[in-house]
Write a structure and sequence with these properties.
Elements lengths: L22 H15 L6 E5 L6 H14 L3 E6 L7 H15 L4 H16 L30 H17 L5 E6 L6 H17 L3 E7 L3 H8 L3 H4 E5 L5 H14 L6 H11 L3 H14 L7 H25 L3 H19 L10 E2 H8 L7 H9 L3 E2 L5 E4 L4 H7 L1
Parallel strand pairs: 1-4, 1-5, 2-3, 3-4
Antiparallel strand pairs: 6-8, 7-8
Helix pairs in contact: 1-2, 3-4, 4-5, 5-6, 10-11, 10-12, 11-12, 13-14, 13-16
Length: 402
């Protein structure tokens, strides 16, 4: 089939041609936008899920929905080695520009507060080379959002932003991807600022996306975070929506799948959106003609698996040190041993840290450095004490196949 007309998009955060199965989340977010715009109380939103389920795609779709309603939006991707001030300042600068407030004096004031917030990151007496210039053409507003206490500064910053948006009957949405990587002090301050703004009724919301343990990160920062955010778990697609993700783009290009091919693709992908796009692209490129058959899927599956092994699984595995790789393999072996003994694994193939230690013949305490390093790298996560799981679906199967 014509590769130029291939409609599938297996890219990181790239929106697929058919965003199947996410209608309920987008509809609920539309309600949040309208309620906040009308001064109604609403919670900020947190999307959680494994890698490859489409959290970033959904986060971007929500941001687009806010833009269509005239909101100011900004997006940042958290990193473990970076504080919040600089990326947040850039995101809020963009949000103010999108808002398009008609009063230049009000806009200049808020931009000056953002600049003051950003420049405080360098600290007093910082050398010129260490100072960061946020590209804001407004003088810093001294004495506002520059105390050095990130919690106080965020509350002041969000308050001024909320006032600017409220003037126009709109709002500001701050989108934070990889939110589990926000540092402890910064995430605590972010929770406190959201709490204060919600009590004030100002139209500022945070839309965060992160790995399954993000709720635990937020709860550790502030005990009231479970009431502060609306949590939405983003999971793999059911069979009906997985079929839609494949069929609708194909039909737009005058192509089709037979039912057996769709069933085979669901078995291969497990309904995970990234895998659906990866397999769909490969099957399309290798199938001789439409309709795509189960035989075409059988021919294309090894090629799709090879590409995933290099780009999706392999790139993550290569980030680990030899000792960390040994720990990852032991997790896969521990899960396999449970299946061999007749036990049923949960959906994420979580295992006890004690079982991993038993596979390696070591004490659990001696493996803490490797486990902690893998947690920081986002390769594994702990949903509950004493249990760990891969953040990447099918990663255990990939390791067992090597």
């Amino acid at each position: 089939m014509d590769p130029i007309r291939n409609p599938y998009a297996p890219g990181a955060g790239q929106r697929p041609p058919e965003l199947a199965g996410r209608g309920p989340q987008l509809a609920a977010f539309g309600v949040v936008l309208e309620r906040v715009s009308h001064g109604r109380p609403e919670r900020s939103i947190v999307l959680t899920g494994l890698r490859g389920v489409g959290k970033t795609v959904l986060l971007n779709a929500m941001r687009s929905a806010a833009v269509r309603r005239g909101w100011g939006t900004g997006k940042l991707e958290a990193r473990p080695d970076q504080g919040l001030r600089r990326p947040l300042s850039s995101a809020l600068h963009q949000a103010v520009r999108e808002l398009g407030h008609p009063d230049p004096e009000s806009v200049t004031h808020v931009l000056g507060v953002i600049r003051s917030f950003a420049e405080r990151d360098a600290g007093p007496g910082a050398k010129v080379r260490d100072r960061w210039h946020p590209g804001i053409d407004a003088p810093a507003v001294r004495g506002r959002a520059d105390s050095g206490d990130i919690e106080i500064d965020l509350v002041e910053l969000f308050t001024d932003l909320g006032g600017l948006a409220a003037d126009q009957g709109r709002g500001i949405a701050v989108c934070v991807d990889e939110m589990q990587d926000v540092g402890p002090d910064d995430v605590s301050a972010l929770c406190a600022a959201c709490h204060e703004i919600s009590q004030s009724g100002l139209p500022v919301i945070v839309v965060g996306a992160g790995l399954p343990h993000l709720p635990a990160v937020l709860s550790a920062a502030k005990s009231y975070s479970e009431r502060l955010f609306g949590y939405q778990r983003i999971d793999r697609l059911d069979r009906e929506n997985a079929d839609l993700a494949l069929r609708v783009p194909a039909e737009a290009e005058d192509a089709a799948y037979d039912e057996e091919a769709l069933a085979a693709l669901y078995d291969a992908t497990g309904g995970y959106p990234y895998f659906i796009q990866a397999y769909g692209k490969t099957v399309w490129d290798l199938a001789p003609h439409s309709p795509i058959t189960v035989a075409d899927v059988a021919v294309a599956a090894p090629e799709a698996e090879r590409e995933l092994a290099v780009g999706f699984f392999g790139s993550r595995f290569e980030r680990a040190t030899p000792g960390e790789r040994e720990y990852l393999r032991a997790m896969a072996d521990a899960a396999s041993a449970l299946v061999g003994s007749g036990e049923t694994l949960d959906d994420i193939e979580s295992v006890l840290t004690a079982d991993v230690a038993a596979v390696l013949g070591k004490k659990p305490q001696s493996l803490s450095p490797a486990r902690d390093a893998l947690l920081k790298k986002g390769l594994i996560y702990s949903g509950e004490r004493g249990r760990i799981a891969f953040t990447v679906p099918h990663f255990g199967a990939f390791l067992r196949s090597r």
